[in-house]
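Pinned message: reference record for Heat-inducible transcription repressor HrcA
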Amino acid sequence: MSDASNILNELNDRSREVFRRIVETYLDTGDPVGSRSLTRDFSEKVSAATIRNVMQDLEYLGLLDSPHISAGRIPTQMGLRMFVDGILEIGIPDEKDREKIDATLGQNSGDVSAMLDRVGSALSGVTQGASLVLAPKHEAAIKHIEFVPLASDRALVVLVFADGHVENRLFTPPPGQTPSSMREAANFLNALVGGRTLSDTRRVIQSEIEKKRQELDSVARDLVDSGLALWMEDDTHTERLIVRGRSNLLTDEQGEELERVRVLFDDLERKRDIADFLELTEEGDGVRIFIGSENKLFSLSGSSLVVSPYMNADRKVVGAIGVIGPTRLNYGRIVPIVDYTAQLVGKLLSDRT
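Predicted structure (tokens):
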């Protein structure tokens, strides 16, 4: 069988219109589409029998499927892909949708993470899906590190970057830490980090610990090891992925659909895998659409992902924004919203630099 694009080119006008109307109706209602409903407002006067013959041909080509309890048809994954690539018309976001997104970015508190969290919440609200926001890495050089004891089992590591950015990270320190051991560990690290990013620092800390094992107190060394583990954990991106609006996916779901959503929730918990997947958006500009099994992460739940990268002032991809939901997404509405939001976030980040 030829690929979807070739099949689309081979369809005559009547077949294309039948296919388009079936997909659009299905995306709007979620129900199988029958021949009689199509004949009522078809552009040319044709019988239901003629429409049924066209539908059978489209099913033979793999573009439509017939649910076992219905005489109507629904698009297959290949049909949805062909519709999205060859027929779907993408406009601009609705004015009300733009205003809701704009309002979140207008609350400029200077905290990028808080801003992205608001964007994720707004995006899930506007699209009624689950939003995914991959926050940008902070790769500025580190200026200073400090450990602050909070309790016997809790401590704070404060990272001050050369560009003025400050990050506070809670962690569980090894037992037996004292204020003096924390100062020693911080002094040791500060002697290494000058002018280096976190990525650079990770590469040299372990070897330096081995070289200076005798000079560094064992308690302080344990703390450095603990801090190194914290940074390695941060490098998995689990804290940089913001997921909002999962409850939207539960609306009016029953039976098999509820099981699909349960599987999807399990997928969403695997944040590291999702973050790695979203970073594939760095391979190309613009919105990308993954339908069903095209997205290996969500293939079991039969979900779709609409995702777009956003860039900094240097036109470098630093993160991604996406919406996930059932394959019956309103792609014509979701795609421009995701694209608009990604461009807006990129502009905001660029204006900060």
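Pinned by admin. Summary line: The domain at 95-129+245-352 is CATH 3.30.450.40 (Beta-Lactamase).
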